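Lab meeting minutes (informal)
Scribe: AK
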Amino acid sequence: MTDHACAANRKSTAHARAKWDRNSRFYDLMTLVMEGKKAKTWYRMLWENVRGPNVLEVGVGTGRSLEYRPRGLDVIGIDLSPGMLSRAERRAKELGLSVDLRQMDVQRLDFPAASFDSVVAACTFCSVPDPVLGLMEVRRVLKPGGKVFLLEHMRHNNPIAGKLMDWVNPLVRFIGPEINRRTLENIGRAGLHTESARNMAMGGILKLIVAVRPLQSVESICQAPANR
């Protein structure tokens, strides 16, 4: 990245951290209203094929997926927001779970290359300031052949619906996530291969995605394409 791009990214990342700290107070209620009881099924499906032993969960949030993690995995959960992590720690105690939670930015992961067998994220890359950069970091820390399991909402494929989401997005992103991300395209830009993309709800806006890091030598992170 250029110095200007890095400065812009730092600024947008700071804004994102502050926004999700504020939202952490009512995030569970907000998602309950939007997702209802279906979320339990979605989280169960997200985790059911995750393989370890070493797993990274990106955007652990308030810990809504903690109870669906398969036993026997060594999972590290990260989030940009300390407010979110505080609530995740509280939920883990209520569930009687021992968890490894760390404050960290997916755009700059503090892990060596090829550290994880799998990476999991739920409704995360709609909020990462530079999603391609974040996905490139995910690719870097994945072992060759390792898989990424994503539950993500994104821009609708329908031209009219997609354009409407583009118009509304500037208003929505002030209080929540971006709603018009082209996540499947971003996955490819980051050097990951989409293995499957299953429509889960809302006419394909919400998808369950499995992507894989190609079997090749570990590469250093390079400049991400402009988004997104």
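Next up, CB showed the second protein from the same session:
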Amino acid sequence: MTEATHFEHDALLYDTEAAFVGALVPWLKEALAEGQAAVAATTPAHIELLRDGLGSDAGSVAFIDQDEWYIQPAKTIANWNQRLTEFSEKGFEYTRVIGEVNFGVAEATQTSWTRYESTLNAVFQDSPTWIVCPYDMRRLPELLLEEASRTHPTVWNANRQKSDRYVEPASFLTSIPESMPAVAGEPLVELEVGGSLLEVRTRVHQAGIAARLRSERIDDLLIALNEVVANSITHGRDPVAVRVWVTADGAVCEVSDHGEGVSDPLAGYLLPGSETTGGRGLWMARQLSDSIAFTTEGRGTTVRFTINS
């Protein structure tokens, strides 16, 4: 084991339940023996296995259902930050985390969560935290297993060792861009942003109603739109255009301008106030949307995000 003084991020590759328990129960027990906080976000079945293995120590570990935690990458990062802050406020100097990501089955979703794994290295690089991310080799696609060694500085596979394939987050996120949310057909709303956002907000509000979004989700749509448009006005170049499509799941909103784009691949992931944050606007848009992606092409920059019903 490593001395618990700084940030660690490991991928645990396992192919049996015995291997999962055999690696993580002693690791959790060691944390508790050293007076550290411990939390495990994993499947209900794995929670039961860990509880059984920990015995009387199980009550000292916080358990989180995987499906309730891994909903959207930016929200999960914010929730981890809040949880780690709470542990620190309770007097814990170090925290160990089991984070078994629910990668889903869609390629776009798997890309988002793979990017999330890389982003953790930048967001929590100064945090006194050791995160271990279990990867089920029986179930996950080969590509995800290969990417684990690129998104984690350390890999457990029989033995714990440094990954010689690890890639720093800025480079990794640039090489694997977020998948743009799909759209089809003509947008319900398409207009340029003029001197006032009033018409834009009115039209987009109507599109939210047409998409049968709940009132709170329409609010999320309008706030995210406002933040992205403000970012385009501040950092991009006119004209700034807004388009909205109604889909079976809700609404897809697109904001485009003729600027040079978002240069920081971590923009919107880092919490407001961090020296390297891309700004509160993009952070807020990531928190409110169900998916979001940026692209920069010859004609300028496009931000597209989804709000599901």
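CB comment: The radius of gyration is 21 Å.
No objections, moving on.
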